[in-house]
Amino acid sequence: MITFENVTKKYADGNTAVDSLSFDIHKGEFFVLIGPSGCGKTTTLKMINRLIPLTDGTIFIDGKKISEYNIHELRWNIGYVLQQIALFPHMTIEENIAIVPELKKWDDATIKDRVTELLDMVGLDPDTYRNRKPSELSGGEQQRVGVVRALAADPDIILMDEPFSALDPISREKLQDDIIALQQNIKKTIVFVTHDMQEALKLADRICLMKDGKKVQLGTPTELMEKPANEFVREFVGNTNKPAVPINLADIMQPLTETDPVPTVTLSNSSLSHEILEQLSAHEVVGITEDEQLIGIVNRQMVIRYFSEHLQERGAING
Ligand code: ADP
Ligand code: MG
């Protein structure tokens, strides 16, 4: 769908921002560009819709060089969401969303229906929101409008440059969930820039990790985690790939109660075992024995509470 062939961008000051980059982005794919600040992500993204001209190499969309497309046709068929909320302040939400459909000369009724549909899609009541000004919306709501504005004219490709990074963690999380749900329905080709590996792992079909304008590794989230190409990848994927730490049973176990718990599991070491969890899936309470003495109980509630707190800390479950 989108092909980069040895794409290079040198800025006028001689800085090589993107250095002979090659990859294929598949149709309907959620493709994430990630890397440290200054590694060339924004430059890469903006070359796709010709906001930045290439110095060398070629970008193809559907087999045709981007330089051969009519610039309006190209831009109108590529949605673009920026990091900073970029709604026009004097225009209503409806007018903001309608910009590209207006340019494409859709008729008024079609545009109005489309705005209704899009606001509904991201949980903003159309009657409440369509005539408001951006300043009357929260940051999260404005960015949601920014996202649907990019979808308005039904483009095949959507480019998103750190669209959620300015938001508070709760809005960010919500919008990430929204975009996953949205993508399952609309199946667009999305090129999404972030510097946040958690976000990349959550959203991406494939991730391209960049450094100094070059591709370091391209693969699925699992591939990057399980087979990092080098130390840089390993570090960037970072704490999401720490070796699993055993769960200390002492953090979960409670003192014995009057009644003898059934069943019991014999302690083999000091950590939570698969056997204990197996028993808990069938029983409310499990007794723990050591040297044939009952030393405590583990109940479902405690285990679930522990998992809830600790897995959230580790980013394994949503906040
Ligand atoms: P990222 O989005 O990954 O942070 P950018 O694509 O914005 O990186 O920038 C890549 C490199 O190109 C950086 O070193 C940046 O300073 C440089 N750069 C970006 N825009 C320009 C410009 N207009 N002129 C000169 N250098 C630029
Ligand atoms: Mg950038």
UniProtKB/TrEMBL annotation:
It catalyses: a quaternary ammonium(out) + ATP + H2O = a quaternary ammonium(in) + ADP + phosphate + H(+). Pfam families: ABC_tran. The complex is probably composed of two ATP-binding proteins, two transmembrane proteins and a solute-binding protein. It is found in: Cell inner membrane. InterPro entries: AAA+_ATPase, ABC_transporter-like_ATP-bd, ABC_transporter-like_CS, Gly-betaine_transp_ATP-bd, P-loop_NTPase. It is an enzyme of class 7 (translocase). It comes from the Bacteria. The lineage of its organism: Bacteria, Bacillati, Bacillota, Bacilli, Bacillales. One of its GO terms (molecular function) is ATP binding. Belongs to the ABC transporter superfamily. Its EC number is 7.6.2.9. Its main location: membrane. The keyword Plastid does not apply. Residues 2-237 form the ABC transporter domain. It is a peripheral membrane protein. Keywords: ATP-binding, CBS domain, Cell inner membrane, Cell membrane, Membrane, Nucleotide-binding, Repeat, Transport. This is Quaternary amine transport ATP-binding protein.
